[in-house]
Amino acid sequence: MTDNHATDPVIHNPVGPAQAAGKPRPPRNQWLDVWDQFRTHKGALAGAAFFIFIVLAVSIGPWLWTVDPTFIDIRARNQGPSLTHPFGTDQLGRDLLARMIKGGQTSVSVGLMAMALSVFLGTAVGVLAGYFRKLDGPLMRFTDLFLALPLLPLLLVILLLFRDVLRAAFGPEAGIFILVVGVIGITSWMQTARIVRGDVLAIKEREFVLAARSIGTPNRRMITRHILPNVLSPIMVSATLGIANAIITESALSFLGFGFPSDFPTWGRLLYDSTDYLQQFPERVMWPGLAISLTVLSVNYIGDGLRDALDPRIRGR
Amino acid sequence: MKLRTALWGAAAATALFPLSAHAAAHEGERGRDGEVKIIYWQAPSILNPYLSGGTKELEASSLVIEPLARYDTEGNLVPWLVDEVPTVENGGVSEDLTQITWKLKEGLKWSDGTPVTSEDVKFSWEYCTADGGGCAQSEKYGDVTSVETPDERTVVVTFGVPKPFPYGPFVGAQAPIIQKAQFQDCLGPKAPECTEANFNPVGTGPFKVTEFRPNDVITLEANENYRDPNKPAFATVTFKGGGDAAAAARSVLETGEYDYAWNLQLAPEVLTQMEAAGKGKNVSSFGTSVERIHINFTDPDPQWGERRSTADHPHPFLSDKNVRKALSMALDVQLLTEIGYGEFGRLTCNVLPAPEIYASTANDACKTQDIEGAKALLDEAGWTPGPDGIRQKDGVRLSILFQTSTNAVRQDYQALIKQWWNEIGVEVELRNIDASVFFGGDPGSPDTFQKFYADVEMYTNNFDGTDPEAYMASWTCDQAPRPETQWQGNNMMRYCSEEYDALVAEMAKTGELEERARLAKAMNDMLMQDYAILPLTHRGRNSAHANSLGGVQLNVWDSELWNIADWYRVKE
Q1: What contacts A76, CB < 8 A, 6 or more positions away?
Q2: Residue A217 belongs to a domain
Q3: CA–centroid distance for B142 within its chain
Q4: Strand partners for B345
Q5: How far apart are the CA of A104 and the nearest CA of chain B, in angstroms?
Q6: Please, which pLDDT band fits residue B26 given cuts at 50, 70 and 90?
Q7: Is A19 in contact with A280 (CB distance < 8 Å)?
Q8: What integer is the mean pLDDT of B175-189?
């Protein structure tokens, strides 16, 4: 329905006299409309700014702050914030800022990749189930099956089964990365699938779909041209929530001592390592804790703002 | 007349001396000090040590049931329910070392008022060795062929083979005496069904159970039939189980809710900080626990399938002694110990660090780190740095997978060791595995410390009591875990040396203490000088008690609660 404005003939135009006479306004890019709406959501704007800051910090950070995150300087252990170590050092004298940057790289990229995977899976399953009636039953029962699986034990079993295979194929760190991303991706697509299916079911019955079908549009085109653009808004929202979810799941895995090797920092692992020192060095828990919660919060705000901005009924109000 | 008075005085002084030695002020009648609260962060599920291998059950039940003799804080045997410990010298042990005769104290009573007889002692042996029962302490009764009871107070234990160390049966918290009248219908397969007896055993100890809630809390009260009329000083005991080490430490050291907390495995600075609150203090004592690295002599490469990490395939580079030696030289055990355990750890270069007579001094070179020496040694042995800085020879790269259990201190150790090994040109990958899986011994899991699908692994082990024979016998060829043994066995390194096996066999036949010590040292030195085990830290056991609790003597050779009858409340 978004790109119908230009083509639909305007039969009754009650606001006609109020419009500028002569040439109509050139059609605006719909993404500009979205941006205009998004801009009015202060939380979303702040969230987006913070998320971009985090992404930049972890991607450009290592060039600006060149300390090796795994280097142990035992004489400088347990130090508070100073000029040489802005975030202080941990119990082995490793620089915490460098570890936060390195850990952020892992956590954020796990978040983005796992989100991409789960959104792709969820959308595919949701659209297929919603559009093809025959697939609906099996696919939705399949989704229910996944929803019923207890997540954490499943993750542990998968890690145990496939760790050695992937490690041999891709090396220890890349192997575990693929494993963690894959595991989080394939266990978090179900919500997206359900939401997308619901929306597809509703849209499928709308007049413009009937019209498209009556001129003989094939299924493939129907989905890519008419259905998908209209379910974009729930997909975008669940994508942002998916990032947050993936970051938290990865942190939980690392916090439990699974996932990446112990010398490979991630935010969850940093948090886990610091809990024993909560009383002596509370800042050590604060940095990774703040990073995780602020990133997740900012991403949630972005999702909230996007939902408003992508809904043409709300837009402009 | 005068002389007689003086003699009386001297006799009285002698009799009172041991008591007055530690604070005369806390003498008095039984139950005078009210309640003592003990917290164990692992909760006991049963009060019968014969049905559980767990330390928590062992220690909780030691409040109630007792052995004939036990170990003191120095690891010496002390008579407990007997008047003296039988030896060859006093005629209690036969010359051929196959028989030991115990004589019970006079007038011993169970907490229900009935007398303790030699039949009860004999029954304890029958209980643990009954057919169809899984007795957790059966190795204590190994080689016992018969237990005779010539009279009410005499027990004669006969072994099938000469036993140079005959103090297995009825000695230590693992092998206490249980009451025949209570357990006689609970033999063999029926043992676990006797819930009432297992939860509320009648004992000779200073306390008896009033209520037992499995995996939660035990309440006990003073045993009115205890052999010393003035003990115990406390009328009741609340024994709380569960939680974690940090919470237990806090409840004693910071909030003062509890009087005693057991086995606090926390970083030294955390404990010191808690102690600063002034409510209690940390106590530690050193037994035989050594944190060590085991080197895998066999190849854990997955390409060998079922036969990986077995003697069929020797390790590609760790079978080279120079590599093992270089790995050892690169370690700074002093720094590790200081960071990981502080005052609760000591330096050691032996896998058998105690008791004193067994501790070798031949390996002290391990105390100093020598990175340059390690590099030179590897250069000499032909391991030269490749293009990526990792040493290699004939296409074999020095790349190590290093596994251990998940524990903050162990992960710190791993990180430090990785850095040192990287410095000498060895690539290290770290892996940590949940402790319940790692130590779980499940033959279906690839991650157990027995399977050892890694190149090196790190953990702590020790042995009960003071005699190292069984412990040193862990590293013979046939003790290697492999598929044929369902992956059970204690020789994690798959170390195999005929010479070592011969020493083990010789020790089993040797009775004389000095000679046994020499053999044990020789075995220890052999393992150390072959760099099969790299010892890191001699670990102490540390517990905490409230400042107002007196009489605590931390015992690592027996139950920590071994002398609870002597505990008392310090008066302000």
Answers
A1: A84, A85, A89, A93
A2: yes
A3: 19
A4: B539
A5: 20
A6: low
A7: no
A8: 88
A60 CA: distance to closest CA in chain B (Å): 26
Q: Which two tokens mark A283?
A: 């800042």
Closest Cα of chain B to A164: distance in Å? 8
Q: Do B419 and A71 touch (CB under 8 A)?
A: yes
Domain residue limits, chain B: 6-279+547-569, 287-540
Chain A residues near residue B429 by CB distance under 8 angstroms: 172, 261
Per residue, what are the HEC states of B169-225?
CCECCCCCCCCHHHHCCCCHHHHHHCHHHHHCCCCCCCEEEEEECCCCEEEEEECCC
Facing residue for A263 by CB, picked from B408, B414, B445: B414
Termini Cα distance of chain B: 42
Single pTM value for the model? 0.74
Nearest to B412 among A70, A92, A280 (CB): A92
Count CA within 13 A, CB hemisphere, residue A141: 4
B287-540 CATH: 3.10.105.10
Tokens (6 digits) for B238: 């609340």
* Domain carrying residue A245: 32-57+89-315
Rounded (5°) CA angle B561-B567-B568 = 155
How many domains are contained in chain A? 1
| Contacts with B472 (C-beta within 8 Å, 6 or more apart), sequence order | B352, B504, B507, B520, B523, B524
Taking the Cβ of residue B412 and every Cβ of chain A, the question of whether any pair is shorter than 8 Å is answered with: yes
Q: CA-CA distance, B42 to B282, in Å (whole number)?
A: 19
Q: Are B372 and B423 in contact (CB under 8 A)?
A: no
pLDDT score at A272: 81
ipTM: 0.71
**Closest in B302, B339, B430 to A262, CB measured:** B430
pLDDT of residue B196: 87
Check if CATH label 3.40.190.10 holds for domain B6-279+547-569: yes
Both tokens of B308, joined, read: 């990986």
**In the predicted model, what is the mean pLDDT of residues B466-477?**
84
- Nearest CA of chain A to the CA of B435: how many Å? 10
Q: Does the beta carbon of B564 lie under 8 angstroms from any beta carbon of chain A?
A: no
Instruction: Tell me whether B431 touches chain A (CB under 8 Å).
Output: yes
Q: Distance between CA atoms of B56 and B43, rounded to whole angstroms?
A: 7
- For an interface test with A, give the residue of B390, B404, B406, B422 to mutate (most A CBs within 10 A): B406
How many Cβ atoms from other residues are within 10 Å of residue B144's Cβ? 19
Element (H, E) at A170: helix A151-170
Cross-chain Cβ contact B273/A160 below 8 Å:
no
